[in-house]
Amino acid sequence: MEEHEKIKEELGAAEAIYRKIVEYEKYDAGAAYRKTARRISGMEWRSRAAMYFQRVAAALFLPVLLGTAALAWLYSEQRREIVDNVPYYSVKSAPGLISQISLPDGTQVWLNTESSLRYPARFSSAERLVELEGEAYFAVEADAEHPFTVAVGKAVRVSAHGTRFNVSSTEREMSVEATLESGSIDVSLGNRSLKLHPNQMATVDLTIGTLVSRNINAWEKTAWKDGRLIFRNAGMEEVAHKLSKKYNVDIQFASADVLRHKFWASFTTESITQILDYMKLAAPIDWSYSEPRQLDDYSYARRIIIIKSRKEVTKAKLIRK
Questions:
Q1: Beta strands across the sheet bearing 116-120
Q2: Is 27 left (phi over 0), alpha (psi -120 to 50) or beta?
Q3: pLDDT confidence bin for 12, thresholds 50/70/90
Q4: Which residues pair with 210 in a beta bridge?
């Protein structure tokens, strides 16, 4: 019985030591051995206690080791959860408006109409990553150790350190354009990459998987952030796309014949009707529009503008006669 009580006493001491080790996260079996040995140095039956301690130390080592591993796993999971739980903001520019955003690192972003940007409340230590749908102009704060990356969909990445550039994507990101104004950027599609220099544009066509670059005047692609529309030998589809975004209208073509016309022009404060009238002077076309239609939810559909060739307009007039 006396021996049994001694063993209980030693077990209690060992348990107290173990709790203290866990509390201070010092999982050292050797230290545990020395600390316990000092406790029992004045006890009777030193040799028996020493033999028993070896058994206790062996039993202690495994849970201490497992406890260390468990705490390390919990700590890493906690860090991962903290990273994953960083608040993200999603900003979408209203129809017909351009929004300017300041990111956590000081980078300035101009978001074109009906475009959206997703970014974290703070950037990670490895990379500054944002996600874009639509079109945006970026003035990136220089940081050589932390590249700034714009993700467009799952396949396209535009990376920079400190530079000014424009990224534009079509619906569903099937075509992406990256235009460099100053500095340098890398445009990648899968394992392929292109480095751009100022006044170069990279075009990604995801339908056929191509990545090509060409020289351009970057100002033509970035003037929109200053409220300007620039057309340089622009086809009707490009003109209609830019007008639709800026003035929040739907533009339709009565026939494919309209698409063959090209335009050179620059606009700032003109209304869309003034621009369409200018196009009438520059090409044999005409246009008409419908009044906004009220929907079931009491909102209004976008105004529809129909562009026709002048031949079709003349033919329609003759038929009515």
A1: 88-92, 116-120, 128-133, 148-152, 156-160, 185-189, 192-196
A2: beta
A3: low
A4: 205
Q: What is the DSSP string of 60-113?
A: HHHHHHHHHHHHHHHHHHHHHHHHHTS-EEEEEPPTT--EEEE-TTS-EEEE-T
Task: Write down all domains in the chain, each with its CATH number in brackets.
Answer: 2-84 (no CATH), 88-222 (2.60.120.1440), 228-320 (3.55.50.30)
Residues 187 and 244: their CA atoms lie apart, in Å, by: 27
Q: Which residue has the tokens 């050797």?
A: 30
Helix H or strand E encompassing 114: none
Residues 292 and 300: their CA atoms lie apart, in Å, by: 6
pLDDT tens-digit readout, 199-212:
999 999 999 999 99
pLDDT at 171: 67
Q: Give the contacts of 114 (CB within 8 A, at least 6 positions apart).
A: 92, 93, 94, 95, 134, 245
Q: How many CB atoms lie within 10 A of CB 292?
A: 13
Q: Which of 256, 247, 261, 264 is nearest to 303 (CA)?
A: 247
pLDDT, one tens digit per residue, over 92-144 is 998 888 999 999 999 999 999 989 999 999 987 788 999 999 999 999 998 88
The CA-based dihedral angle spanning residues 258, 264, 270, 274, taken in that order and rounded to the nearest 10 degrees: -40
Pair 111, 131: CB distance under 8 Å = no
Which residues share a beta bridge with 306? 252, 288
DSSP assigned state of 301: P
Full DSSP string of 144-168: TTS-EEEEETTTEEEEESS-EEEEE
Entry pTM:
0.67
Query: Cα–Cα distances in Å, from 10 out to 3, 7, 24, 36, 238?
Result: 11, 5, 21, 9, 86
Question: 60 pLDDT exceeds 70?
Answer: no
Neighbours of 8 (CB within 10 A): 10
